[in-house]
């Protein structure tokens, strides 16, 4: 069966001028900074003027652990936003921007798919409005100023062996994970070991996504710990005097981006931290702005609920004072079969037993999200190969977990195919059953917070950490950082740290390889297992087939 590609569908979209989309939300044209005709930034002054307005209801879309079968979390987020508008609710979508690294690697874009997309698709998955370039530049300006300070006499007495601020770029490049800089003699500085992370793992990205305004942004940038002296005294970004210039570089990037769905409904696309190595949520400023402008705000958190949803609840909601009204967990029959042991090549064949065998992964996520006091509904993202019996098996399993699973056909039918889910979400959100609370209190010890996540969310037996890591956590507690939440960096493919361990494993351990203080963002990054903060390209990267065709259109982007 032949289907149009996402980019073909997006290219045929009947887009409205972005000023019309802004008018739907009551944003005057003078408060929009247009980037062409179909995208614009919303001014800080307009956003400040919304402070006294009441908030709409916040809906989180999350998912099971991702599989090569595909789950369609962003597609469902966009579809649900369209569906809510279809049934008469004023709904706004809030998603993250796409990173160039995965686009040219293997993951693809972040604009949805089929008839549930945000457009313009090509621009969103490439340079968009330049936010990621601004973040990369601001981050690397600080890197340059640190080395420059050391070169010109090192007044702050920075220990070159204890510079903890790495460089970043928005591309997958494993060759840059560990490097030596300042080679070439006296004129080039003092050689030291460092490396690159991908831009979406940058603390500057996290700071932009958690800041409320430009003043908050500059304060958080100043709070970044960049290095230590020989006496282990912390050196901050403000000591290097880089925070002001970094704020200037990020001035426009702080303004949320307004675009539209294929059905001409408003969507904010802003920020893009990965959920497996960062906190995985779109910006606080975009979410809060949307809540002032709409009755419903549909947002997503990256990867499975064990990563994205946990960080959405424990980091973003905690820090921003947000209270979600309901959560949607996206699952597919195909992914259930893959969790049940079926190979990708055989997913088109009916296998009810494999569906049942794979469902515990979904069940674990349902229980986890419920543990935060948020009511849950499951969205079965429909594929044409799904059979009635397989769908019935998922619905029956979910019902046994005390929730409802609803078949959604938004990929093929747009908002028409997701009306039932939209109505269920409204019923949950307006039912008043949400009683949101984070997983752990601020005052809990840092290592105890790590153990709480590992045991309650991952169902691990223990956390393995060397004495040096435990001592580092204690030192941060003594320095006043004990109240910070935890940002776990681990594989997205499993509840464990083994990407090949599917389903709902128990009895496993969580090995902690490294911990990083993100004092400006306001969390502790805990790097587990073999997770990398600079991904590599696959053997056959998508970049090999991305090109311009004879008509000048982009091909190969997905």
Write up what this structure looks like.
- By secondary structure, this protein is of the alpha/beta class.
- The chain contains 20 helices and 25 strands.
Structural class of the helix and strand makeup? alpha/beta
Fraction of residues in H or I helices? 25-40%
Main sheet properties: 12 strands, mixed
Q: From the alpha-carbon coordinates, what is the Rg to the nearest angstrom?
A: 23 Å
In the predicted model, the low-confidence regions spanning at least 5 consecutive residues are: none
User: Quick check: average pLDDT?
Assistant: 95
Give the strand tally.
25
Contiguous helical run count:
20
Distance between the ends: 19 Å
Indicate the overall shape.
globular
How much strand? 15-25%
Which structural traits does this protein have?
558 residues; alpha/beta
Secondary structure elements and pairings:
Layout lengths: L5 H6 L6 H7 L7 E3 L5 E3 L1 H5 L8 E7 L9 H14 L4 E5 L4 H5 L7 E2 L2 E4 L1 H4 L6 H21 L6 E6 L3 E3 L9 E3 L10 E3 L1 E3 L4 H8 L3 H9 L2 E5 L4 E3 H4 L2 H8 L6 E5 L4 E4 L14 H10 L2 E5 L4 H16 L5 E6 L1 H7 L12 H19 L5 E6 L6 H13 L4 E4 L1 H4 L5 H12 L15 H11 L5 E3 L2 H15 L4 E4 L19 E10 L4 E6 L18 E2 L5 E2 L3
Parallel strand pairs: 3-16, 3-17, 4-15, 4-16, 8-11, 17-18, 18-19, 20-22, 21-23
Antiparallel strand pairs: 1-2, 2-14, 5-6, 6-14, 7-12, 9-10, 12-13, 14-15, 22-23, 24-25
Helix pairs in contact: 4-18, 7-8, 7-11, 9-11, 14-15, 15-16
